Give the backbone structure.
Amino acid sequence: MLDQSRTPLLDAIKKFQEADPAYFRIPGHRFDRGADEKARKLLGRKAFCADLTEAEGLDDLHQPEGVIYQAEALAADLFGSDCCWFLVNGTTCGNEAMILASVREGEKILVPRNAHKSVLMGLVLSGAIPVWMQPEYLESWDISGAVRPEMVEQALEQDPEIRAVFLVSPTYYGICSDIRRIAEICHAHGVPLLVDEAHGTHLYFSESCPGGAAALGADLCSQSTHKTLGSLTQSSMLHWKSSLVSRNRVEESLKLVMSTSPSYLLMASLDGARHQMAEEGKKLVLQAENLAEKARELLREIPGISVLTEENAHSRGKICLDPLRVVFRAESPRIRGYQLQDRLFAEGQVSTELADENNVVAVITWGNTEEDIRRLAEAADEIVSMTPDITGNSYQTAEKRQIFSFRIPEQVMTPRQAWMSQSKACYLEMAEGQICAESVIPYPPGIPILYPGERVTKEAAEAVQFCREHRLHLHGCADTTLRTLQVVTAYEGKEGGKLG
């Protein structure tokens, strides 16, 4: 193991600052002397002084040979990969690069239907053909569950043209798939496993979960270091450990999707976060797990509040939950998930990560305190106690399940072709048979009804109508009222209705 006490990039930035050079490079603020006074007072002089470029001794992210190369090598060593790249465009660019490096135009990639929208960007850039699989649906919580190993195995056996498998683990709700077993299945079929573990960087240091994707056999995994560790927002890492995907191809793909003006603040924070986890990662994650468990205990004691557990998820098989995610809801239909989140902040000054139609998600780290946990529980208790005791749902989840259980629509065009097509707004009532030019993704459960390039079926149109009638929260569509859908009119001179 490398000397994990080192912080090569942080040290190089400090050394450059101490030299106090006459500076004639970008950025223009010149160690804060040219910065706005209000910004300087809020952000602090030290932030501006560390906001540098590829100056003397500071290396180059896109051709690292010095301190950035050393910092990335230390990260690879800690997380158990053969190579690590620092990302300054978030895990979004990591997901894009993984797809670009693994599949080419016209090749197939197996993708869960609840994948992040950055996967759409990767599909558009690569021209790859998605082969969709539905993750398990946890009806009692109205959220997407895990991708089961047998789903992947069945898909690979049915379609030998699949060239890569993409997974999301853990999900935004903290549900982890069996990465080790899925990796074994992928490799037995000669295809690489790509994992979006944006929310799972801390799992490498947890004693209560199997571990992180790089340690469990994934060929490539992207992780948002900033989400659960101590780096700055937008800083991420991409890990490679594969004989199936070219390392050089990954590097070239990153150059296509990542900024040529990388932030040294972001990269330095990655170096620091790696150092912190190397020094005391297991202790810090255990501390956070204890806080999260305390939050679950206090919330469970509140009449009218339910908390997601492995038992009440009602999965078809055993699942593993991220120990730092606290997913909870009010049982009263008078308090929807969005309303609960809004009231937690308005009435208790408690800010949570995510809300959907039913649930609220709180992310706990070692940066939280017992006082934070107490305030969360007290605010939730106050809100539900002040609301009339009516149980049940504003609409039946079973009805929603029936509406959304239709077959995935036919992929008439690749997402890239649909993206490049001419399109127009079409009234929903007239959209059946047309080719969708956008995504329609209701939250929850975060699974698209329609994806670019798919034929609008009667069942899909009915599901969209259901979303409109129940005013579900939607991502991806231009008209959030859902009166219209964007549909393809022509691609390479062909009429939209004649494609496929």
User: Anything to note?
Assistant: The domain at 397-498 is CATH 3.90.100.10 (Ornithine Decarboxylase; Chain A, domain 4). The longest helix spans residues 264-300. The radius of gyration is 24 Å. The CA atoms of residues 403 and 466 lie 8 Å apart.
